[in-house]
């Protein structure tokens, strides 16, 4: 007995002496380090792009008629006479304080310009993502359940249309039909001119500002301007989300646990939503997050057609004008958006699927 007892004490228990929180903290630390390294790499990339482009930053500030003495003084003032590693260190310090320099077009800080235009794009992309996800996910699930049926063919046609139809053409046709002909929606811009003085911008999101003011007529006008460009933009997200959801669902519907559940008499839709969709939810979250990021940075054509004063239009105008401070600032913001959404997706994985918490 004594020998058996001593042997049992010598054997390490599977959970004895282990801290269950430590693996999760290590995983979180690895995640934070990965995000930091990615952001530093992104900053290095934008710094090098700004230095390699054939645009002289000094002439961009002073103009082509600047004298040599003015050129040399500005060259030193901008820190371009320092070694590249020192310039990069100063660049990192500035962006940590959200300082991207001044815009050549307006003379204002680029950070203020981004804060001014970004809510317009975020409002547009968020509504587009809600429409695309709200329709795309159920459409993909139903198409997978009724594979090769008429519903599946309709879903494929919708996906093909979303992938192939140019947004600018859809936007123009939408304006001609729903605005100019039928008068169902508002025209270009975020709001009619007669309502501009009624809106007091607080958050920059016109729908929220109108709700905060309690002005339902103003809210209706803002929504009428928003719904058409958001729907046009949502079509591409809908196509991607529905196609990927269908693919994920088809793969899971062919698994043995689905056959076993059917043999036990479990209802079809209970199997689909309770078991199958739960297994693909993590993958769907990734698709939705990436789609949202692409909508935030890829709404340039839609914003141009609808005269939407947003982030994409601002970045395009800055690029055409050679305003590199604005271009690099916008590029960094886009990169942070992608990294941030990937981080949110990873955190949601851990909430939805407990198995990932041990990774």
Question: What can you see in these coordinates?
Answer:
It is a multi-pass membrane protein. The chain crosses the membrane at residues 28-49, 124-146, 166-185, 222-241, 280-306, 326-349. Residues 118-349 form the ABC transmembrane type-1 domain. Pfam families: BPD_transp_1 (PF00528), BPD_transp_1_N (PF19300). This protein is an all-alpha fold. Helix content is 74%, strand content 0%. It has helices spanning 2-10, 21-52, 57-62, 68-77, 84-96, 110-145, 150-164, 167-181, 206-213, 216-253, 256-263, 268-297, 300-305, 311-320, 324-352. The protein is globular.
Brief rundown of the structure:
With 359 residues, this protein is mainly alpha-helical.
Give the tally of structural domains: 2
Shape: globular
DSSP, total strands: 0
**Helical stretch count?**
15
| SSE topology string | HHHHHHHHHHHHHHH
Question: Which ranges are low-confidence, i.e. pLDDT below 50, for 5 or more consecutive residues?
Answer: 1-17
CATH architecture call of the largest domain? Orthogonal Bundle
Computed Rg: 27 Å
Question: Helicity, in percent?
Answer: over 70%
Q: End-to-end distance, in Å? A: 40 Å
CATH topology of the largest domain: MetI-like fold
Assigned CATH superfamily of the largest domain = MetI-like
CATH top level class name of the largest domain: Mainly Alpha
What is the residue-averaged pLDDT?
83
Structural class: mainly alpha
**Biggest pleated-sheet summary:** none
Strand content: under 5%
């Amino acid at each position: 007995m004594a020998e058996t007892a001593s042997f049992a004490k010598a054997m390490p228990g599977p959970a004895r002496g282990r801290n269950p929180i430590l693996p999760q903290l290590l995983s979180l630390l690895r995640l934070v380090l990965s995000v930091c390294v990615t952001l530093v790499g992104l900053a290095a990339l934008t710094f090098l792009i700004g230095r390699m482009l054939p645009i002289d930053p000094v002439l961009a500030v002073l103009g082509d008629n600047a004298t040599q003495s003015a050129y040399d003084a500005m060259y030193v003032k901008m820190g371009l006479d320092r070694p590249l590693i020192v310039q990069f260190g100063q660049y990192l310090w500035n962006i940590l304080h959200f300082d991207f320099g001044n815009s050549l077009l307006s003379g204002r800080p680029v950070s203020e310009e981004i804060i001014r235009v970004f809510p317009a794009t975020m409002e547009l992309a968020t509504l587009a993502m809600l429409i695309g996800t709200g329709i795309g996910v159920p459409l993909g699930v139903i198409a997978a359940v009724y594979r090769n049926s008429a519903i599946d063919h309709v879903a494929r046609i919708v996906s093909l249309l979303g992938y192939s139809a140019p947004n600018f053409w859809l936007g123009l046709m939408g304006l001609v039909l729903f605005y100019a002909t039928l008068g169902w929606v508002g025209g270009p811009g975020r709001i009619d001119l007669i309502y501009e003085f009624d809106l007091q911008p607080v958050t920059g999101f016109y729908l929220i500002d109108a709700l905060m003011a309690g002005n339902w007529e103003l809210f209706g006008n803002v929504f009428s301007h928003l719904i058409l460009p958001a729907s046009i933009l949502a079509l591409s997200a809908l196509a991607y989300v529905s196609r990927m959801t269908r693919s994920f669902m088809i793969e899971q519907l062919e698994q043995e646990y689905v056959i076993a559940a059917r043999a036990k008499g479990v209802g079809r839709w209970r199997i689909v939503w309770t078991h199958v969709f739960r297994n693909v939810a993590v993958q769907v979250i990734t698709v939705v997050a990436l789609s949202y990021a692409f909508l935030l940075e890829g709404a340039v054509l839609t914003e141009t057609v609808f005269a939407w004063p947003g982030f994409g239009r601002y970045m395009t105008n800055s690029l055409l004008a050679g305003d590199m401070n604005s271009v690099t600032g916008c590029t960094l913001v886009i990169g942070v958006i992608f990294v941030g959404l990937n981080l949110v997706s990873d955190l949601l994985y851990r909430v939805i699927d407990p198995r990932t918490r041990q990774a």
